[in-house]
Amino acid sequence: MKSNSRLIHEFHECDTHPPPPPSPPLPSPLPSTSLNQTQRPMTHSCVSAHFPDLPPLLEIERNQSLTLMNSHFSITTPVPLLPSQVEVGAIHCRPAKPLPQDLEAWIAGAGSAGVIYFSLGSIARGETMPPQYRQAFVEAFRRLPQRMLWKYEGELEGLPDNVRLSSWLPQQDVLGKWATAAWR
User: Which residue ranges have biased composition labelled Basic and acidic residues (predicted)?
Assistant: First the structure.
């Protein structure tokens, strides 16, 4: 996984302005995901075949006047940005709405230990996880003092009392609760 500062640096590579030097230097020697001289023509021909009226990708890259970046200075490594680059990380966030009463009561019952929200996202489904991994998660959750709110599409038997499954959860509202101690 790449750090935000590396991604920002790579973004500068396709921006029309010369990139400012990384500050501080890039934290890891990960390879670049930028297109090289061989990949760029191949990508262009593929895009042109499906979108014949689209200008060349390089022209689009060089014609941008504003770049909205999904990052925020408070949680990324400081890097210089160009005037045309605006960090808008968390722009989609809003104040938490009330949760359903049963969920609100369950979270409140966690007391000072709080709740950990565990979700593998919408692409990785917990029910397709190999059984030994599922069991490892259950055993790890059993040892925690926090209550575990696990977004899981299915049913599991033998869950400890501190684990609650749900196939869908209002993520922003759960994360907006002070009792939510951590999330993944």
Answer: 7-16
Whole-structure pTM over 0.70, yes or no? Answer: no
Same domain, 48 and 79: yes
Query: Are 67 and 108 within one domain?
Result: no
**Do 128 and 78 reside in the same domain of the chain?**
no
Q: Which amino acid is at 145?
A: P
**Contacts of 137 by beta carbon, 8 Å cutoff, 6+ apart:** 118, 129, 150
Q: Using CB atoms within 10 Å of the CB of residue 6, give its burial: 0 to 12 exposed, 13 to 18 middle, 19+ buried.
A: buried
Give residue 74's region: left, alpha or beta (phi > 0; psi -120 to 50).
alpha
User: What tens digit of pLDDT does each residue of 48-91 get?
Assistant: 899 999 988 778 878 888 989 988 888 888 888 889 999 998 88
